Amino acid sequence: MQLFSEYFKKSNLLSRVDARIKLIVSLILLIMVLSYRGIVFPLLILCLGIILCIRMKIPLRVLFLRFSEPLVVASVVLILKFLTGGKDTLFSIEIAGIRLAGHTDGLMEGLMIAARILGAVSIIALLGFSTPFTEFMAGLSWFRIPKGFIEILMFAYRYIFVLLEDAMVIYNAQKNRLGYSSVRRGLNSFGVLTGSLILKAFEQSQNTTVAMAQRGYDGNMPILKHKPFKRSELLFSTLFVTTMGFLWRI
User: Fold this and answer.
1) Distance separating alpha carbons of residues 115 and 109, to the nearest angstrom
2) Which end of the chain is more exposed for a tag (fewer CB within 10 A), N or C?
3) CA 89 → CA 37, 107, 119, 177, 187, distances in Å?
4) What's the predicted TM-score (pTM) here?
5) Quick one: 120 exposed, middle or buried, by C-beta within 10 A (0-12, 13-18, 19+)?
């Protein structure tokens, strides 16, 4: 549960920064990382993001889980580019009648794409670890994101934990009754669990709609109100983006 909750968004230097500024800086850094022709700048952003996450006391296990999927994707892209892309052959071997050839230019292109993936993921991970969900939604509303979309996200975030608890209750009950003792029984149990969650989600949506209508909900959320920007945060973020832009141009 801690992986998906606000547990790690404790009081720290980045969590006190205005979410709008963090969104703007993250967007600029993403553009820099994705447009950089090389691996130095994305790797610099990756190292900076990991160091800041460690400084925020994010457990290494949680950090590894956040980076595990993009790391697999980056590895697959790197291998495919190395073996199938490029013209400068580095080596060539034949295994079971299949010829495999590694290419130097394909390896460099794969490293560049992998560095972009990991650098971009580090920015998103740092933004997620340092920004509470409600502040993130308030920042999106300042960017004129449709109010209906933000409303759906907030209700989904609220009730995803309720459904997760229901799923754990059903799963433990099935497991205690040997519902996963074989592959066939496991698939049947998983189908029952999925169907039960869909019905619960539909029922919860109806109950929430009725409850909000009875309380006079008109679509206005006080948490989406914005405070003025702080000069110190604007100055520091401008200096940071300028420094990163200088490094990006090198």
Assistant:
1) 10
2) C
3) 22, 10, 28, 57, 46
4) 0.79
5) buried
> What residues does 91 pair with on adjacent strands?
102
Query: Between 19-35 and 40-55, two packed helices, what is the crossing angle to 10 degrees?
Result: 150
Q: Which of 152, 138, 140, 133 is nearest to 212 (CA)?
A: 152
Q: What per-residue confidence (pLDDT) applies to 5?
A: 47
DSSP-assigned letters across all residues of 33-62: HHH-SSSHHHHHHHHHHHHHHHHTT--HHH
**Mean pLDDT per 10-residue section of the chain, whose length is 250 residues:** 52 79 94 93 94 87 89 93 81 76 87 95 91 84 82 82 88 90 89 90 85 76 73 92 91
**pLDDT at res. 238:** 94
Closest CA relative to residue 182, chosen from 172, 174, 193 = 174
Task: Tell me which DSSP letter residue 173 carries.
Answer: H
Q: Which two tokens stand for residue 126?
A: 């740092």
The two structure tokens encoding residue 59: 């457990």
The answer to whether 166 and 200 have CB atoms below 8 angstroms apart is yes
Within 13 A of 225's CA, how many CA atoms are on the CB side?
Answer: 5
48-52: which pairs have CB atoms within 8 A and are 24 or more residues apart? 48/122, 49/119, 49/122, 49/123, 49/125, 49/126, 50/122, 52/14, 52/126
**DSSP line for 72-110:** HHHHHHHHHHHHHS-SSEEEEEEETTEEEEEEHHHHHHH
